Amino acid sequence: MRLSRSLVPTLKETPAEAQIASHRLMLRAGLVRQTASGIYAWLPAGWRVLQNIAQIVREEQDASGAQEMLMPTIQSAELWRASGRYDAYGPEMLRLKDRHERELLYGPTNEEMITEIVRSSVKSYRELPQNLYHIQWKFRDEVRPRFGVMRGREFLMKDAYSFDLDYAGAVVSYRKMMLAYMRTFQRLGLKAIPMAADSGPIGGDLSHEFIILAPTGESQVFYDAAFEGIDYTGGQFSFDSEADLQRFHEMMTGSYAATDEKHDTAAWAKVAEKREGRGIEVGHIFYFGTKYSEPMGLTVAGPDGKPVVPHMGSYGIGVSRLVGAIIEASHDEAGIIWPDSVAPWQAVIVNLKPGDAACDSICEDLYAKFAGKALYDDRADRAGAKFADADLMGHPWQIVVGPRGAAAGNVELKRRATGERQELAVDAALARIL
Ligand code: ATP
Ligand code: MG
């Protein structure tokens, strides 16, 4: 994209309504604009980040064996009456009526809908297990929408739902999702800690919240150093090996991790290598047995022909919340520092003197070679303003093209994360990045 022709409305001043760094930076870097309380439009740069995150989430869901589909945002009240949640859900649910006075709602989650879909299409135990997911907008009329996209009313979620014949199968599905989550967060450049969460009346160790570490996070986190330095993507754990999945699950549940809400000081005292930090919840997975399948009449024919009620689990990731969470984990005074995997563009090409033949020619050449993966700052602005915007927008690499270097065929390459600069020949700079 050429910046001179793009809608990337960066702001110099700090917007008054933003209380936390990610919210401020998302507004200042021109990623989003609020259109109503807790509802945001994703501008071109923000939309690219959101899609990059969704794509990593998708690849890891697919690798775990889950299948992508798409359910609608609008649901019928009937579905939710069948599970008993229509009245129970309360004022967080946005309720609507169509022209025939039929009651509808904007989905805050999809357990009922997926249970009904599976009920009407899966008949035999041979068709299980199934794990289905979608990446879809949700609406929850939060009492206090705040912190920008971190607690919005309309937000993008990846939600997956597993169906197994029995408890043992559900445990395997749960472990696969847990591994997919740790791989996903690692690829997003985040340190994630799985924390035992309330599993309600069912009990057991099959409910976890995923907290990512960020200095400005909402809750204090206490965890065992054992969680650090594990490589989840390196082939140590396979989705296809139940032994690997069990070993992985034991590793995740065997070490201490808690937020200030559930901190157990006696257990903490026994941890040899203690770590503390601040954290943000970005995902939640849980097994809930037959909580929805039972009341909604989902059964399949078992091996002996008798009906069996499948065991379910559900698995959420806050895709749009992750945009804010990544910024909380990775920014400085000057702006965002995007991890390479989610950056809207890998590099910005900063033309210090548009109109200078050598500068223009190097920039155009580079821009073409990046094939859409670079942003070209071809604006006629002052150099200082361009540098400030490049730092603010957080591109992993800045390629600065000025008349002096350009005459000798050189550019200056800056790595945003470290501030390290280097003068290089054009091709060498390109080779460093691509
Ligand atoms: P919270 O305790 O933050 O309200 P929740 O328990 O309601 O979260 P889930 O129903 O488990 O959340 O949803 C799965 C994920 O969706 C959460 O882990 C979070 O990342 C994201 N999420 C939930 N509510 C919001 C929201 N209002 N805005 C943005 N993301 C959200
Ligand atoms: Mg909530």
Automatic annotation (TrEMBL):
GO molecular function terms attached to this record: ATP binding; proline-tRNA ligase activity
Stored NCBIfam families: PRK12325.1, proS_fam_II
Quaternary structure and interacting proteins, as annotated: Homodimer.
CC per GO annotation: cytosol
Family per record: Belongs to the class-II aminoacyl-tRNA synthetase family. ProS type 2 subfamily.
Matches recorded under PROSITE patterns: AA_TRNA_LIGASE_II
Enzyme class: ligase
Compartment(s) where it occurs, according to its Swiss-Prot or TrEMBL record: Cytoplasm
Keywords, sorted A to Z: Aminoacyl-tRNA synthetase, ATP-binding, Cytoplasm, Ligase, Nucleotide-binding, Protein biosynthesis
GO biological process, one term: prolyl-tRNA aminoacylation
TM ranges: none
Residue ranges of every copy of the Aminoacyl-transfer RNA synthetases class-II family profile domain listed in the record: 33-339
Catalytic function, reaction form: tRNA(Pro) + L-proline + ATP = L-prolyl-tRNA(Pro) + AMP + diphosphate
Entry superkingdom: Bacteria
Free-text function comment from the UniProt entry: Catalyzes the attachment of proline to tRNA(Pro) in a two-step reaction: proline is first activated by ATP to form Pro-AMP and then transferred to the acceptor end of tRNA(Pro).
E.C. number(s) listed in UniProt: 6.1.1.15
Official protein name in the record: Proline--tRNA ligase
